[in-house]
TrEMBL record:
<dbReference type="InterPro" id="IPR009075">
    <property type="entry name" value="AcylCo_DH/oxidase_C"/>
</dbReference>
<dbReference type="Pfam" id="PF02770">
    <property type="entry name" value="Acyl-CoA_dh_M"/>
</dbReference>
<dbReference type="GO" id="GO:0050660">
    <property type="term" value="F:flavin adenine dinucleotide binding"/>
</dbReference>
<keyword id="KW-0560">Oxidoreductase</keyword>
<dbReference type="InterPro" id="IPR037069">
    <property type="entry name" value="AcylCoA_DH/ox_N_sf"/>
</dbReference>
<dbReference type="InterPro" id="IPR046373">
    <property type="entry name" value="Acyl-CoA_Oxase/DH_mid-dom_sf"/>
</dbReference>
<keyword id="KW-0274">FAD</keyword>
<keyword id="KW-0479">Metal-binding</keyword>
<comment type="similarity">
    <text>Belongs to the cytochrome b5 family.</text>
</comment>
<comment type="similarity">
    <text>Belongs to the acyl-CoA dehydrogenase family.</text>
</comment>
<dbReference type="Pfam" id="PF00173">
    <property type="entry name" value="Cyt-b5"/>
</dbReference>
<dbReference type="InterPro" id="IPR009100">
    <property type="entry name" value="AcylCoA_DH/oxidase_NM_dom_sf"/>
</dbReference>
<dbReference type="GO" id="GO:0020037">
    <property type="term" value="F:heme binding"/>
</dbReference>
<dbReference type="InterPro" id="IPR018506">
    <property type="entry name" value="Cyt_B5_heme-BS"/>
</dbReference>
<keyword id="KW-0285">Flavoprotein</keyword>
<keyword id="KW-0408">Iron</keyword>
<dbReference type="GO" id="GO:0033539">
    <property type="term" value="P:fatty acid beta-oxidation using acyl-CoA dehydrogenase"/>
</dbReference>
Length: 396
């Protein structure tokens, strides 16, 4: 049971080596933390033995309090917390932070299946939130264990959207494959942006090329490997000289003399998830046009990290191909008609980006609202400044 203290008792622990503070009626022993505080010793020392609620919330997000919960030693007698601690996966109460249907409004789009899916995904993702935050902070590679947890929960397959690929997948919330539509959105809500790209970004934009254009034996091998999180795949289209101008790409694939394989040479740039990928769905130039090839990581294929403004967890890579041998069965679609495959695939990518951006927008609004309410400057909360309220109104 949590210990109970009076404010006078807390006030007696006001020395650097014996330092307690109060945040929203909870008592924290900061003696062991003070030297670890990223903002230095002084701000905590100044509040030793006192109520630090305003000072804390003026500078930190609530997640920090949850992270350092281990320093909590009790509560103030006869006082109740005034600030609600957001439970992982809970529906936000901030205006516009969630789809209106989640906030109790009637929607023609959302049915019981969406609600069941949302509740189940939030629960799964709530359990993984700490893994994602850790990844965000360490800039690490999303682990095989994490990928396989997402795979086992059916979330990798669901991220690809509706379609026959969902048959046989254990969809969260018991949703049936043919009930699943594009309004079953949830993933972007929880996973930080760069990490999201490392976990699903490269995969979600490349796997449709396999689902829709690979030969059956290839599809039957690769799709289960990728949906279970055991293998990773990325989309390798862009090159240093061919970004928007995709048709100008130079990576080439020459058929071997015996016609059994292509020999691929060239460079790809900005390839999301490329550093971690086992498979590369790759656009190449063949004798009479463009073609798509599924290339396995093998001799002659190398990946190098590209530094980006978001997390290295996205695995953004340069990919170089030097005489890489690719079996002809790995052709996706028809030889020299790869541009159709590329364009068909871009449609899916655009929709995914749109949905991610829509949720990212909601999260931005939510964070701004929360911050404007808790941050005090010039003696008042940010939200008390008309110019800030005007900006928030503009965001909605
Ligand atoms: C974080 C990140 C991840 C990526 N992941 C992948 C990936 O996984 N796989 C992959 O293949 N690629 C990936 N890309 C590459 C991405 O597809 C290209 O960056 C994009 O196609 C633009 O190409 P570019 O950067 O060469 O810009 P450019 O083609 O040089 O364009 C520069 C600017 O000019 C504009 N522009 C170009 N041509 C015209 C025109 N004709 N009319 C008007 N405006 C024009 C463009 O809109 C752009 O604003 C990624 C890029 C980034 C930044």
């Amino acid at each position: 049971m949590s210990k109970s203290f009076t404010r006078e008792e807390v006030a007696r622990h006001a020395a650097e080596e014996d330092l307690w503070i109060i945040i929203d009626s909870a008592v924290y022993d900061m003696s062991r933390f003070i030297d670890l505080h990223p903002g230095g010793v002084f701000p905590i020392l100044e509040l030793a033995g006192k109520d630090a609620t305003d000072a804390f919330y003026g500078l930190h997000r609530q997640e920090v309090l949850i992270k350092y919960d281990r320093y909590k030693i009790g509560t103030i007698a006869n006082e109740k917390p005034q600030i609600e601690i957001r439970q992982p996966g809970a529906i936000s109460k901030v205006p516009y932070a969630e789809s209106s249907a989640w906030m109790g409004f009637k929607s023609p789009y959302f049915t019981e299946s969406h609600f069941k899916f949302r509740a189940a995904v939030r629960e799964i993702m709530g359990g993984l939130e700490a893994d994602f935050r850790e990844l965000e902070q360490t800039d690490g590679k999303p682990s095989d264990e994490l990928m396989q947890k997402l795979g086992a929960a059916g979330l990798l397959a669901c991220n690809v959207g509706p379609g026959p690929h969902l048959r046989g997948i254990n969809i969260p919330g018991g949703v049936k494959a043919d009930e699943f539509d594009y309004f079953h959105e949830e993933f972007a809500r929880v996973v930080p942006r760069g990490v999201d790209d490392g976990v699903i970004g490269g995969f979600v934009i490349s796997i449709p090329t396999i689902l829709n254009f690979a030969k059956p034996h290839l599809r039957e091998k690769i799709v289960p490997e990728v949906f279970s999180g055991k293998k990773r795949i990325c989309l390798a289209i862009s090159e240093p000289g061919a970004g928007s101008d995709v048709a100008n790409l130079r990576t080439n694939a020459k058929l071997s003399a015996d016609g059994s394989h292509y020999i691929v040479n060239g460079t790809k740039k900005w390839i999301t998830g490329g550093r971690f990928a086992h498979y590369f769905s790759t656009a190449v130039r063949t004798d009479k046009g463009l073609s798509m090839l599924l290339i396995e990581r093998s001799e002659g294929l190398e990946t190098k990290a590209i530094r980006t403004s978001y997390s290295p967890s996205a695995g953004t890579a340069y990919v170089t191909f030097e005489n890489v041998k690719v079996p002809v069965e790995n052709l996706l679609g028809v030889e020299n008609q790869g541009f159709k495959v590329i364009l068909s695939n871009f449609n899916h990518e655009r929709l995914v980006m749109l949905m991610g951006a829509s949720y990212a927008g909601r999260i931005a609004v939510e964070e701004c609202f929360k911050w404007a309410n808790q941050r005090k400057v010039f003696g008042k909360r940010l939200i008390d400044q008309p110019v800030i309220r005007n900006k928030l109104a503009g965001m909605d």
